[in-house]
Specification:
The chain is α/β, with parallel strands linked by helices. The chain has helices at residues 20-23, 57-60, 64-77, 89-92, 103-118, 134-140, 147-163, 183-187, 198-222, 244-266, 272-279, 290-294, 344-358, 383-402, 450-460; strands at 13-17, 82-86, 122-128, 169-173, 227-239, 300-311, 320-322, 325-327, 362-366, 406-412, 432-434, 446-448. It has a single domain (13-466), classed as Glycosidases (TIM Barrel, Alpha-Beta Barrel), CATH 3.20.20.80. It is 38% helix and 15% strand. The strands form three sheets. The protein has an eight-stranded parallel barrel with strand order 1-2-3-4-5-6-9-10, surrounded by four helices. It has a two-stranded antiparallel ribbon with strand order 7-8. Strands 11-12 form a two-stranded antiparallel ribbon. The protein is globular and about 60 Å long. The mean pLDDT is 96. Bound molecules: 6-O-phosphono-beta-D-glucopyranose. Residues 19, 22, 174-175, 233, 304, 366, 370, 412, 419-421, 427 line the site of 6-O-phosphono-beta-D-glucopyranose.
Length: 470
């Protein structure tokens, strides 16, 4: 960046991002039903134990359900302009297919949103963050069933009507592309009960697309001036070598993610999928109205970004699993303790790709470093987290100069929470430490880490402190 361009836009939405199932706890309180998130003791790819056979970390999580006022005050102290949260579907419709909502559940979010308003923090609300009701999984087979569209519509209509005066920014499905890698958490499809085929997955995906487009339509009808976005898990992919075949492999990999934003941002299936469907014998059953419904496209495109990876067409090079994506490690990059390759420039690349592709506003709704912090004399010196976020934000600044239109940046897990992939607590992302451990012990006390004060100064300066030399 040069001297004349050192600021982020004045209305830039700085903040943090949480999901109900990773922070709230109170997993069966006040009428809440069981969700897919409540039955995974070892995280996304682990065993499904339904009903749970003991207490898992997510059942109490960070105790946000009881402590959200204290936590929101801390977010306000950091100067947050925005907080991304999700509404647990099972607090509002415990089974998912009821016609009348659970008033206690609705009241919790009334109170949460009014607390945010009191602190001038804009809520950004995800409608479905890996939180489908277990009842819909067991009785209907999850998103395989078209009936789920109607249940989701009812849920969405209920929350749009209830919160229309306080919530203007919405997201439909968290990391919708994850259905290809984690069909249970993303779509309620049980791999231990159903044979997962491409036919089945792409039919479920179609149902989610229709549900998402219906939500866009409803959102615009019910809430004045609201903006609704889609959300994908972003991943920058590089060819392992300059061999043309490796570049073709990159295109294939990118399309595995961009297919989802293509449909939601453009309003129709991209032509490259015709060949994929044909060669894989996939026939999507569509109803008459579907093509028209899909034309209700999103207002912005949001994504999570943690890492990058390499791709090759060679099958003698083994891919490694990190963040559920399987990729080949890049020899030029370092990795986090959990093997996620750290690549700030990959964020700039992803922003440019997405903006070139859609020319729609973008929103980085997750980014951060999972690390096992150590408390020393009551303090947490997490310089590594500051370095990670600083490097990424500098690249965000570069992308802004490249011409990308970015609405905001919400760092993942500003408050320590339960890891989605591994179900652990020691994988911490927070600026605020939560005294809670994998063996279920802990007081839940909150401690400000070094990164708390640093992020506060980033927001206060609207990004200027990222460039101390200018
Ligand atoms: C995203 C999810 O995949 O990454 C979050 O939307 C998740 O729910 C985050 O927590 C980080 O992943 P993990 O596995 O470290 O919790």
């Amino acid at each position: 960046m040069n001297n004349n361009s050192l600021t982020f836009p004045s209305n830039f939405l700085w903040g943090g991002a949480l999901s109900a199932n990773q922070v709230e706890g109170a997993y069966l309180e006040d009428g809440k039903g069981l969700s897919v998130a409540d039955v995974l003791p070892e995280g996304i790819l682990g065993r499904i134990v339904s009903p749970p056979d003991r207490e898992y970390l997510k059942h109490k999580a960070s105790d946000f359900y009881n402590r959200y006022k204290e936590d929101i005050a801390l977010f306000a102290e950091m100067g947050f302009k925005c907080l991304r949260v999700s509404i647990a579907w099972t607090r509002i419709f415990p089974n998912g297919d009821e016609s009348e909502p659970n008033e206690d559940g609705l009241r919790f979010y009334d109170s949460l949103f009014s607390e945010l308003k009191r602190h001038n923090i804009e809520p950004l609300v995800t409608l479905s963050h890996y939180e489908m009701p277990m009842y819909l999984v067991e009785e209907y087979g999850g998103w395989i069933s078209r009936s789920v569209i109607g249940f989701f519509e009812n849920f969405v209509k209920t929350v749009f009507n209830r919160y229309k005066d306080v919530v203007k920014y919405w997201i439909t499905f968290n990391e919708i592309n994850m259905i290809l890698h984690a069909p249970f958490i993303a779509a309620g499809i049980r791999p231990d009960k159903v044979e997962i085929t491409n036919q089945l997955l792409y039919q479920a995906i179609h149902h989610q697309f229709v549900a998402s487009a219906k939500a866009v339509k409803l959102c615009h009808e019910i809430i004045d001036g609201a903006k609704l976005g889609c959300m994908i898990a972003g991943l920058a992919v590089y060819p392992l070598t300059p061999r043309p075949d490796d570049s073709l492999e990159v295109i294939k990999r990118e399309r595995e993610s961009y297919f989802f934003s293509d449909v939601q941002a453009r309003g129709y299936y991209p032509s490259y999928m015709n060949r994929f469907f044909r060669e894989n014998n996939i026939i999507i059953t569509m109803e008459e109205e579907d093509k028209e419904i899909l034309k209700h496209t999103v207002d912005f495109v949001s994504f999570s970004y943690y890492m990058s990876g390499c791709a090759t067409s060679r099958d003698d090079i083994e891919e490694q699993e990190a963040n559920i994506f399987k990729t080949i490690p890049n020899p030029h990059l370092k990795s986090s303790e959990w093997g996620w390759q750290i690549d700030a420039k990959g964020l700039r690349i992803t922003l440019n790709h997405l903006y070139d592709r859609y020319q729609k506003p973008l929103f980085i709704v997750e980014n951060g470093l999972g690390a096992n912090d150590e408390v020393v004399d009551g303090q947490i010196h997490d310089g590594y987290r500051i370095d990670y976020i600083k490097e990424h934000l500098i690249q965000v600044g570069e992308a802004l100069l490249d011409g990308v239109y970015l609405m905001g940046y919400t760092s993942w897990g500003p408050l320590d929470l339960v890891s989605q992939s591994t179900g652990e607590f020691r994988k911490r992302y927070g600026f605020i430490f939560v005294d809670k451990y994998d063996d279920l012990t802990g007081t839940y006390n909150r401690i400000k880490k070094d990164s708390f004060y640093w992020y506060k100064s980033v927001i206060q300066s609207n990004g200027r402190i990222l460039y101390p030399d200018c």
